[in-house]
Amino acid sequence: MSLAETVPMLFVRIVSALFGYTNYVVIGIFVWTIWLDHTQPKRQRIRYGRSILPRLGSIRSFDSEPEFQFVDGLETNLYVYEAILEGDLVTIISIKELDVKIKDLSCLLWYSSQQDSIAFVVNASVRDLHEHHGMKYTAAYVQCALKKRYAYLKGWPLLVGLTGNKSMAFRPKVMLPIQDGGMKSFYQDAASRAHAAEKRVVEFTVCIPPIYGDYSNTAQLVEKLEMSRLLGARRVVLYNNSIAPSVNSVLQMYIGEGKMGLEKLQVVVHPWKLPAVSENGTIRVIQSEKDIHYFGQLAAINHCLHRYRWLSRYIVFTDLDEFIIPRQHDSWSQLIGYRQKRSPNIAAFLFRSTVFAKNLPTPAKGFELKAFEYGSAVFWYTQRDKYIFPALQRSKLIVDPRRVEEIGIHNVWIGSGTTDDVPPTQGMVYHYRMPLRSGPRVLHVSDFTVTNKFGTQLARKLKAAWSKLQARASISKRLSLPIRT
Ligand SMILES: *[C@@H]1O[C@H](CO)[C@@H](O)[C@H](O)[C@H]1NC(C)=O
Ligand SMILES: *[C@@H]1O[C@H](CO)[C@@H](O)[C@H](O)[C@H]1NC(C)=O
Ligand SMILES: *[C@@H]1O[C@H](CO)[C@@H](O)[C@H](O)[C@H]1NC(C)=O
Ligand SMILES: *[C@@H]1O[C@H](CO)[C@@H](O)[C@H](O)[C@H]1NC(C)=O
Questions:
Q1: pLDDT per position in the chain (485 positions), as tens?
Q2: What's the rounded Cα separation, in Å, for the pair 363 and 376?
Q3: Of the four, 25, 66, 278, 315, which is 20 to 30 A from 234 by CA?
Q4: Which sign does the torsion angle of CA 414, 419, 424, 428 carry?
């Protein structure tokens, strides 16, 4: 033991002899913190709060699903979704009013859930994400910096509260359990890390933006999940704003199978109800495109980035109607490995986008029936626009999540490393949708890459998935006709 440790421990022994065992821990922590504070060079010293943990009944449990909560007592609207532990930071994914500065916000960090534990107080820093599309509300990060000596003292924080009140007698306005997100096991010793890796860390996680509008396209969803699996995904993360009962049943089946470890594909669905705002005495849910861009897409994808950062080697960001297709390799893993070898400092791989227009049904030979039976876009459409969008227009990303701090829809905003502009001959975003460009001058080319590489396997997977779904419930296949799939 060093002097810095023995002196306070001696003091604790004496004090605890005087005051009895009950206060031992509390006093010990106080004394130790003060002592360690003194032994630090005179940089910014952190205040230790007197705020005692509120009744645990008022705190959401650790395994409950996240949801947007209002942070009361500020002069602006701030909603917090989930707190995520990231080494020396706790990042809280939030939605707030654009450009409104939030000062004097403090984080209260609890390292124990015992009723008499004491919070450590640090200033919160709040910043808007870059991409907000000029709406009134934007995605934002609220961040609380952790000090190394706190980790040394008591492990990692378990709960974070937020308050705008500087008084020492404050109570937090909102309390969030802190999600580990795999970071702890990453920092543990190699043995337990290997164990954790085996269990939870996957090579590719796919993050899909919020699904909304009573979404009911089961054929598209099943194809998205099965194609992702074939390309190398072992986890798909979705955000549930509003889905039809048929889609709910499909998701429940995949979630159940993932939990049983049957199919090696973990499907995670996070609830994504947008927050309600109080305006002039009336309460209303904030609206997509009126108040916030595309159902809070930026908050959702950046949540996915942080939440699965330590549980994935790479994260793939695409919509339900898009696939990133390797054109010379057979999987994402091979393609990424190849690109990485050429240039090791890559934080993100950017894929350019091309459209397979859904007004041109041209089923692949041998797959005509399957196209019809499973409502499969991949089998129906094999003619794509000759035109390939340039980088940053409609492009999509595969990122190394540990090198990226903030992503946009088509680009990386903050990261350490380069963005690799993958040549379209090696990989592209195949976007199955109604035409974006039309007229006699739009040229098309046949492209059988997907059916040649994955057709047979995909047909088998779709068959298996649909027979399980039909055995489970009375979901009839939604056979979308070519003109409207
Ligand atoms: C915390 O914020 C207060 C003002 O809100 C400021 O005076 C203080 O220096 C900040 N502390 C740190 C450690 O940044
Ligand atoms: C801040 O704390 C003081 C002292 O406890 C209390 O009187 C006051 O009502 C609090 N303000 C808010 C906005 O919670
Ligand atoms: C999606 O949200 C609805 C409404 O909150 C809920 O009833 C349903 O169970 C959710 N589905 C999934 C798969 O999370
Ligand atoms: C709330 O009321 C004020 C004053 O009556 C008005 O200027 C403002 O536009 C109202 N806000 C909304 C969102 O209706």
A1: 455 556 656 765 765 566 565 555 555 555 565 555 554 433 333 444 455 555 544 555 666 789 999 998 888 899 999 999 988 899 999 999 999 999 889 898 888 777 677 788 889 999 999 999 999 999 999 999 987 666 555 678 888 999 886 554 567 778 898 888 776 666 555 555 554 544 578 999 999 999 999 999 999 999 999 999 999 999 999 999 999 999 999 999 999 888 776 668 999 999 999 999 887 888 899 999 899 999 999 999 999 999 999 899 999 999 999 999 999 999 999 999 999 999 989 999 999 999 999 998 999 999 999 999 999 999 999 999 999 999 999 999 999 999 999 999 999 999 999 999 999 999 999 999 999 887 778 899 999 999 999 999 999 999 999 999 888 765 554 443 333 33
A2: 10
A3: 66
A4: negative
Ligand 4: which of 76, 135, 278, 280 to mutate, judged by most atoms within 8 Å of the beta carbon? 280
Return d(Cα 179, Cα 64) in angstroms, integer: 11
Cα of 280 from ligand 4 centre, angstroms: 6
Please state the pTM of the whole predicted model.
Answer: 0.84
Q: Is the dihedral of CA 275, 277, 283, 288 positive or negative?
A: negative
Cβ–ligand 4 distance for 279 under 6 Å, the answer yes
Ligand nearest to C-alpha 44 = 1
The ligand whose atoms approach the alpha carbon of 221 most closely is 3
Testing ligand 3's pocket by substitution, the residue of 248, 259, 273 carrying the most ligand atoms inside 8 A of its CB is 248
Q: Look up residue 393 and give its amino acid.
A: Q
Q: At 278, is the secondary structure helix, strand, or coil?
A: strand
The residue whose CA has the least distance to atom 7 of ligand 3 is 248
What DSSP state is assigned to residue 330?
Answer: S
CA distance 6 to 356: 70
Residue 163 CA: which ligand 2 atom is closest?
14
Q: State the greatest distance between any 2 C-alpha atoms of the chain, in Å, as a whole number.
A: 92
379, 430 Cβ separation under 8 angstroms: no
From the CA of 75, the nearest ligand is 2
Instruction: Give the binding-site residues of ligand 1, using a 6 Å CB cut-off.
Output: 44, 103-104, 123
